[in-house]
Amino acid sequence: MTTIDGPDGRPRCRWCAGAPEFVPYHDSEWGFPVDDDRRLFEKLSLEAFQSGLSWRTILNKREAFRAGFANFDIDTVAGFTPLDIDRLLADAGIVRHRGKIEAVINNACRAQELIAETGSLAAYVWRFESKEAATPQTRSTSPESEALSKALKKRGWRFVGPTTVYAFMQAMGLINDHAQGCVTRAEAALARQHFVVPR
């Protein structure tokens, strides 16, 4: 079984059964295409923090992360100082991992460089949209996630391995990985049909 009935009786991806808060996240966010640089940067950052942890942990701390990281405004985070690092290390509401905190600040600086060169973070990451049809939720990386990971690392980004990047691509709609039979799969596909890929 790749789906499970949700609270309304409609089938959803089986991972929704993991926690009650997964259902609204699944229904309204996961797999829907995103072209907003702030949201894309936030998701890349949160996926970096998730490394070695569960998404439930990060999702439940998301508002605290947003508060701590200035709502993931790229320019603001790029200007964070050692005092901000100390502040975040003292913040019990987030995952207090110095390497990951420093990586987010570094990645904000790298994002500024990328935006100056390509116009937007969205225009860059959507170059790596998955074109290959695959059985949903059967892999943790893809050729596209490996390519984007390699490209970002070459630009100096940190904590952007191919598995982390694949999870980002799933969530931000660069691939529709909703299970066959999931009620949200068709909704995500329709959203992609109406989505204008940023250039």
UniProtKB/TrEMBL annotation:
What residues does Zn(2+) bind to?
13, 26, 178, 182
Q: Which domain of life is it from?
A: Bacteria
Gene3D superfamilies reported in the protein's UniProt record: Hypothetical protein, domain 2
Looking up SUPFAM superfamilies in the UniProt record yields: DNA-glycosylase
Instruction: Please provide, alphabetically and separated by semicolons, the GO molecular function terms listed in this UniProt record.
Output: DNA-3-methyladenine glycosylase activity; metal ion binding
Q: What class of enzyme is it?
A: hydrolase
Q: Which InterPro entries match?
A: Adenine_glyco, DNA-3mA_glycosylase, DNA_glycosylase
Q: What is its EC number?
A: 3.2.2.20
Keyword annotations for this protein, in alphabetical order, are:
Glycosidase, Hydrolase, Metal-binding, Zinc
The GO annotation for biological process reads: base-excision repair
Q: Which PANTHER family does the UniProt record give? A: DNA-3-METHYLADENINE GLYCOSYLASE 1, DNA-3-METHYLADENINE GLYCOSYLASE I
Q: What name does this protein carry?
A: DNA-3-methyladenine glycosylase 1
User: Organism, per UniProt?
Assistant: Devosia equisanguinis
Task: Give the taxonomic lineage as stored in the record.
Answer: Bacteria, Pseudomonadati, Pseudomonadota, Alphaproteobacteria, Hyphomicrobiales
